[in-house]
Amino acid sequence: MTASDAHPAIEAVFRIEAPRLIAGLARVTRDVGRAEELAQDALVAALQQWPSEGVPRNPGAWLMQVAKHRALDDLRRARMLKRKHEEIGRDLDEDDDPVAGIEDALDDEVGDDLLRLIFTACHPVLSVEARLALTLRLIGGLTTEEIARAFLVPESTMAQRLVRAKKALAEAKVPYEVPHGPELANRLASVLEVVYLIFNEGYAATGGEDWVRPALCQEAMRLGRILAGLAPQEPEVHGLVALMELQASRLRARIGPDGEPVLLLDQNRARWDRLLINHGLKALETARRLSTEPSPYVLQAELAACHARANTAEETDWRRIASLYGALFALTPSPVIELNRAVAVSMAEGPAAGLVLVDALASAPALKNYHLLPSVRADFLVKLGRHDEAQAEFTRAAGMTRNRRERDLLLGRAETARQAQGVN
């Protein structure tokens, strides 16, 4: 095998092994940035040796061994410098030997290292944008270029964001640990938020040329499944996994032949992924079994399950969906949730009932620049035969979105509404 043939395979292996490798190194170095550098050093060694020597039977262990030796060398150099600076004329006692300590730590089982790394990458000391980027880099194994492309920023901007994030963690001396007690619930919410934001950016891209980005959805689901394996007794983790899998089951049906958006009621449900639906429903059952009271991701998974169980749009239980949105609003009051409830109410009771709810949201500051508010209102107006008003609302919505596919869809609906005015 030539080096050029081997490199893609080695890089693929590294992407799989990197999260656990970085997690194990971060546990002992207490520095996420340094752990990533050590992992990269191990990759360089693999690129140099594996093409001629072959991929080892346990590539993860090989990479960890190389990184461990580099970490030990660093510590030995640091110890020698310390000795010189302090002019110590005796050797350190074995019990105080930092090299022995790190060697023991690196030989430990991985344990919950990956979970610790996820909680560190999603620490509230970082901005949401930084948490997203760092999670995809450290846990997802995506390159800086890939993350920058996903979030529509220059690679240099994303590189700076990642550097600042790792520096912020180091300066804040963020403990590399899974929090306990009340802090666990708060930090877990942050972790789940990051994973779901990644998923949503793939499911309904906020900008760019593509309506969906399946790779981001896949990455978020992979992260969710890792969390479910590491925190098997947390119902919200299983609820999020269920929610993502049930929503992702529609991805193939969400775009047409030319990449154009296909709305839920117009989708060919034969294209929905039944395997993902079954997995999602099983995860929901697990979440229900663990739940003692309603929780946001479990409720959202219940909503997604209502759609997944309906073989046709007409079979959808819109009254139950409206009720679930009401329960979700009671837990996490949000005008976006109320807007979604308005859609369900309109389907159950008619567009006039939905319009009343939407108009009550018109002054909500959080929805001032939210394109789906005029879009939903326009849809109700079309059904009520008020096409001139609907045209204006669709046009307004199109001016708010940064996604080209969605803008084209809204402008197309505005034109349809304009043509309908002449018919009426």
From TrEMBL:
Gene3D superfamilies: 1.10.1740.10, Winged helix-like DNA-binding domain superfamily/Winged helix DNA-binding domain. It holds the Pfam family Sigma70_r2. Residues 187-287 form the DUF6596 domain. InterPro entries: DUF6596, RNA_pol_sigma-70_dom, RNA_pol_sigma70_ECF_CS, RNA_pol_sigma70_r2, RNA_pol_sigma70_r4_t2, RNA_pol_sigma_r2, RNA_pol_sigma_r3/r4-like, WH-like_DNA-bd_sf. Residues 17-79 form the RNA polymerase sigma-70 region domain. Keywords: DNA-binding, Sigma factor, Transcription, Transcription regulation. GO terms for biological process: DNA-templated transcription initiation. The keyword Endoplasmic reticulum does not apply. GO terms for molecular function: DNA binding; sigma factor activity. It comes from the Bacteria. Signal peptide: none annotated. Residues 118-169 form the RNA polymerase sigma factor 70 region 4 type domain. PANTHER family: BLL0085 PROTEIN, BLL6612 PROTEIN-RELATED. Belongs to the sigma-70 factor family. ECF subfamily. This is RNA polymerase sigma factor. It comes from Bosea lupini.
